[in-house]
Amino acid sequence: MPSKKLFVRDLRDIKRILSKFHFCSIGDLPFFINGLEKLVPYYTFITTGTRTNRIAPSNVKVLLARRPSDPILKSSAEVLKKPEIISSLKRFRVRPSLITYEFNQETVDICKRYGWDILGNRPDLKVWLENKANFPRILKEANICGPECSIIKPAKIDELHKKWKVPFVVQRITNDLNGKGTFFVNSVADLPAIKVACADDALVKVTRFVNGYSVNTSACVTRFGVLLARYLHQLVGVKDLIDIRGGYCGNDTFLSFHLNPDIESMLYDLTTRIGMVLHRYGFRGCYGIDFVVSEKGYPYPIELNPRFQTTTGLLNAVQLKMDGIPFLAFHILEHLEIPYQVDVENYNRTSIKIPLVDHSQMVIHQKQSEGAVRISLKPGIYEIKSGGLHYREAGFSIDDIKDKHSFLVTRLLEKGQLLPPNAMMHIVQFQQGILRDYCILTDFATEVCHLIRSTVVDG
Fold first, then answer.
1. For the chain, what is the radius of gyration of the CA atoms?
2. Which domains does the chain have, with CATH numbers?
3. pLDDT higher than threshold 80 for residue 179
4. pTM here?
5. How far apart are CA 254 and CA 435, in angstroms?
6. Is residue 177 pLDDT above 60, yes or no?
7. From the CB of residue 297, how many other CB atoms can be counted at a distance below 10 Å?
8. Given this model, what pLDDT does residue 56 score?
9. In this structure, is the dihedral angle defined by the CA atoms of residues 239, 241, 247 and 252, taken in order, positive or negative?
10. How far is the C-alpha of 70 from the C-alpha of 49, rounded, in Å?
11. Rounded Cα distance, 361 and 31, in Å
12. From CA 218, how far away is CA 220, in angstroms rounded?
């Protein structure tokens, strides 16, 4: 570890600081940290899939945590308890530093037992922050006005409906990370199904509906302050991608549509104030905020994501492409407790004004019925040829896309795997915009979505 503080000005400084560490990620495809392979010489990912090793960059070593016949591994702890994985990590010449999308206390205990670093916030803190009942308290501490909401028992939804009328939004308190915990109430007819879905919940969060458009901000809490990046437009409830109204299904830089500068300033100010509250709780690293910009132009913070987001991989690629320093680097510096310095004001001034490129991603979900995976698409670069999907070449990140006729398919679904209703299928990235208007896909993006779903899923 460096013996003195190093001032971080550009990517060269980051590469020099991180060159002595060996980083490992865990997942079916560690897409959320795409870009790390460009920053460090020693990088391994432990995949819960079975074919990811075929597309890994040359400087990335792959460890397979399961064979095709093995059951699907559901947590980082299950991966790290496997004897072959333990044996491999023990052979590293440098102590491994682990990065994973989700982890629990068992994962922390395993890493502590073997002397490995786990680069993330305490599981109990993250669980508390993920709890939607606590977000109003965080907003209050940040002196921010959120949309009117109530934390009530599911049985009381009828009473609130009589008071508020419709529309309003019901959210389960705990985050299932699958977009299946949010329900939009448009009429009395919607209430019975929602009460059944939430019957086992002690409490739910009910919020007045705000009509507007959705944007997402990403940020990073550091010991010096909150680092910011330009906002991304958020795709929600796009019927071609998801059957859940208001369900998350992608992002687009959408350069043809610009927010009013005053709204942009408010977005960054609110994101920073929330980040400062997180810092007081002991949180460090990457987080994101979902906003709805009302018809009157006020950005209401709707949800806190105190973790890597689905947007993180896309944002890493955009920041690196514009020679910026991705948040992921500062997340690592904070959790390794490396002594460094950064000029937050200068970083933010550059980061939020950076001339973005047209990049986008869409998240394709299973329809309302259960489906079985008929064909397992290997991750990589695809194009449409003769009216069907055509695998073009291996690919790992959005930078592997060569032109606007091709796209990157991520995630690996196993043949025969059952997909429950509304389950995430594939994340597809493009080096172009996929919106022709707010939450309306281009014809090309629509065709890609329909072809992937009809090719992969039976039913």
1. 22
2. 6-119 (3.40.50.2000), 149-208 (3.30.1490.20), 213-351 (3.30.470.20), 360-458 (no CATH)
3. no
4. 0.91
5. 7
6. no
7. 12
8. 67
9. negative
10. 10
11. 12
12. 7
